Amino acid sequence: MPYVNIQVTDENVTKEQKLQLVQGVTQLLVDVLDKNPETTHIVIQEVPVDNWGVRGNLYSTLKKQK
Fold first, then answer.
1. Which of 31, 37, 42, 52 can pair with 22 through a Cys bridge, CB separation 3.0 to 4.6 Å?
2. Annotated active-site positions, please?
3. Where's the 4-oxalocrotonate tautomerase-like domain (predicted)?
4. Residue 10: predicted pLDDT
């Protein structure tokens, strides 16, 4: 039973985009690892930009600097 956790920043990811991620990752596991889609679980977690760090900074801070 594959379990995949996708974490993205909470920047307006639509329900349709999430569905595309779930469908695409599920199909990838079917194609590459011959996994059963009926027992494949995908979880999408949206992380606030204040809780995401990159290059030694908070992503929210870097985003404001642009």
1. 42
2. 2
3. 2-59
4. 95
